[in-house]
């Protein structure tokens, strides 16, 4: 049988070599999947990957920055394989652009291939237990948004302050300047300034200190 011509190219991002080897062993023999070396992709020696499989234990500052680096080009669709996700992390990773989430303890060859294929088709995949948690969090945020609007606050996004806005404000509260924030979050300095400008314009905040005070008062940071 000839090899399929429309194979899905996949890069694998994992700090642990054994975890990476496990994902490779699950995916490499599937006829529609082609695993691409990240270094060869960067050097233009291999086709650009359609899907990136990212393995993390949990979402912390380092893994969040790694996710943003993978997603920065806006072309790869990410399958996140996580050991655990705290409730505040759920909408964060979805907002970053993660298309599929697979629990590590449920990551079999079949589930990984299915997640890669569905992500490549632009579909979202969540474990059943995560779906109910996401829906519950969305409901709470919408209720919070309605209460803010009724009290005259208004102007905030549908799901409250966006995760990347809280990321920036949290670092400002820690005393970091624009350059340090851009390095920490893997954003350009222009992006950091644009995030702050959009936030302060939307919420009618006068300066960075006012923005931090608002975020602290409202419980975002």
TrEMBL record:
PROSITE patterns: HTH_LUXR_1, HTH_LUXR_2. The keyword Phosphoprotein does not apply. One of its GO terms (molecular function) is DNA binding. Residues 154-219 form the HTH luxR-type domain. The keyword Transcription applies. One of its GO terms (biological process) is regulation of DNA-templated transcription. Keywords: DNA-binding, Transcription, Transcription regulation. This is DNA-binding response regulator. It comes from Streptomyces subrutilus. The lineage of its organism: Bacteria, Bacillati, Actinomycetota, Actinomycetes, Kitasatosporales.
């Amino acid at each position: 049988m000839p090899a399929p011509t429309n194979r899905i190219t996949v890069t694998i991002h994992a700090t642990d070599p054994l975890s990476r080897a496990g994902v490779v062993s699950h995916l490499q023999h599937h006829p529609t999947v082609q695993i691409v070396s990240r270094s060869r992709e960067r050097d233009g020696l291999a086709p650009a990957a359609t899907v990136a499989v990212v393995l993390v234990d949990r979402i912390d500052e380092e893994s969040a920055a790694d996710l943003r680096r993978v997603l920065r080009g806006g072309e790869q669709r990410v399958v996140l394989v996580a050991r655990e996700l705290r409730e505040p992390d759920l909408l964060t990773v979805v907002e970053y652009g993660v298309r599929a989430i697979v629990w590590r303890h449920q990551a079999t060859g079949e589930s990984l291939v299915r997640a890669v294929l569905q992500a490549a088709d632009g579909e979202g995949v969540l474990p059943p237990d995560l779906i109910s948690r996401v829906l519950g969090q969305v409901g709470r945020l919408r209720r919070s948004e309605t209460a803010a609007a009724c009290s005259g606050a208004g102007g905030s996004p549908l799901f409250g302050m966006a995760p990347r806005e809280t990321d920036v404000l949290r670092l400002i509260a820690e005393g970091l300047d624009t350059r340090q924030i851009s390095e920490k979050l893997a954003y350009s300095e222009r992006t950091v300034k644009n995030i702050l400008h959009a936030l302060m314009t939307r919420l009618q905040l006068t300066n960075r200190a006012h923005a931090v005070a608002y975020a602290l008062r409202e419980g975002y940071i």
